[in-house]
Amino acid sequence: MEENSPSKEKIPDKCPHCGHKLSPWQQVLLNVDRILTCKNCWYKIILTAPTEDQTETDDESLGSQNDKE
Fold it and tell me: What's the pTM value of the predicted model, to 2 decimals?
C-alpha cells in the first residue's frame, strides 16, 4: 500500500546538478539528515525544512487540542 500524501516531500533519486543516480542508502541519509553531498560533482543537496510559521501553527493547534482534554 503506497501513500501519496501531499505533505510528504519527495526525496530525489538523482543529483539535481549533474543527474548522477543516488543509491538507496544515500536517499535514506538525505531523508534523515536533509543534506547530502553528491559523490560525482560534490554538489550539496539541501532539502528545505518546514518554515517557522508552519511549525508555530502546528504547535498552536496541538496546544488547543490539549486544552480541550
Answer: 0.58
